[in-house]
Amino acid sequence: MSTPNKDIEKVEVRVKWDPSPHGDPPNDLDIIAATYSTEEPYGSPAYLVHFDSRAPDGTITLDRDSRTGQGLGYDEVMTLELDRLSESYTRVIVGVAIQQRDGHKTFDTVENTAVQVREGYDILAESDFSGVSDATAAVVAEFVRDTTGAWQFHATVRGFDGDPDSFAATMGNRPTGV
């Protein structure tokens, strides 16, 4: 049976920020994607994709990685080919974490932050992290496979306080109060 609803197929998550002031440690934001299996949609991630890694099947890749925020436009870009992702995965959560190796940094201490989620030329969501300004990391997108196998996008920006490792381990947990 065909349907007029087009599901999400291939998306980009893009993050930008300004470099730190001269003499300060660099601001380093990282995009992290976590995939969750059908058996454990809110358990531990089946696998993570971030700097220095990619999805085992090549469906999620970090196309651009910056450790400083220098350059024009978006500094980090991750592509998710959801239409190619195995049916054994039912959720993909994408987040942004600030590296904490040079002290505690939150989104309000990094100038001109922005995240954009888009499919082709269509912008699905945008944020400047102002709603989670005191957080060190944030979930910025949730993709869920419905019963027909189509991927649905849920826009969200949920803050987290902690280091990137603990964020990656818990970013896909069921939000409290749900």
Compute the average pLDDT.
91
Total strands: the figure is 10
Q: What's the helix-strand series?
A: EEEEEEEEEEH
Given the helix and strand composition, which structural class is it?
A: mainly beta
Task: Please give the order of strands in the largest beta sheet.
Answer: 4-5-1-7-8
What fraction of residues sit in β-strands?
Answer: 35-45%
Portion of residues within helices: under 10%
Termini gap: 33 Å
Spans of 5+ residues with little confidence (pLDDT < 50)? 1-5
Number of helical stretches of at least 4 residues: 1
Radius of gyration: 16 Å
Label the overall shape: globular
Largest pleated sheet: 5 strands, antiparallel
Description:
The model is unreliable at 1-5 (pLDDT under 50). It is built from 1 helix and 10 strands, in the order E-E-E-E-E-E-E-E-E-E-H. Strand 7 and strand 8 (122-127) form a beta hairpin. The protein has a 5-stranded antiparallel sheet with strand order 4-5-1-7-8, with no helix packed on it. With 178 residues, the protein is mainly beta. The longest helix is centred in the C-terminal third of the chain and has 7 residues, at 164-170. Helices cover 4% and strands 40% of the residues.
